[in-house]
Design brief:
With about 110 residues, this protein is mainly α. Helices cover about 40% and strands about 5% of the residues. The protein is built from five helices and two strands; from the N terminus they run ααβααβα. The chain has a two-stranded antiparallel sheet with strand order 1-2. α1 packs across α4. The longest helix has 11 residues. The radius of gyration is 14 Å and the shape is globular.
Length: about 110
């Protein structure tokens, strides 16, 4: 995910998403699915990936994101401080019964 806003939209409505500030991310999964990715200085997990595009936030929007009081946006910006320079956050969202149930509960 290249956008902190997109990460927030998904993370606040999904039962389990990794990385996330309230869920321990399984480093081995990131090593397996993103072997060429870079580790984040925040969590030492291989969850960053360079992409061939950049976000098109203007300076006011960047300032708003960087000073946001939304926990998901704060976390995203800590994990991926270079999101506006072509670095995306590699996320993993498990698909299983537990995920379905936790997402249903979270959405209520």
């Amino acid at each position: 995910m290249l956008s902190p806003a997109m990460y927030r939209a998904i993370a606040k409505n999904t039962g389990i998403i990794w990385p996330h500030f309230s869920h321990q991310a399984p480093a081995a999964l990131f090593d397996h699915f993103n072997p060429d990715g870079d580790p984040s200085a925040e969590n030492a997990i291989r969850c960053l990936v360079s992409v061939d595009r950049v976000s098109n936030y203007n300076q006011a929007e960047l300032d708003m994101l960087l000073t946001s009081d939304k926990p998901e946006i704060q976390y995203y910006c800590k994990l991926n401080p270079h999101f506006n320079s072509g670095v995306a956050l590699f996320v993993i969202i498990p698909v299983n019964l537990k995920q379905f149930l936790l997402t249903l509960i979270k959405r209520k």
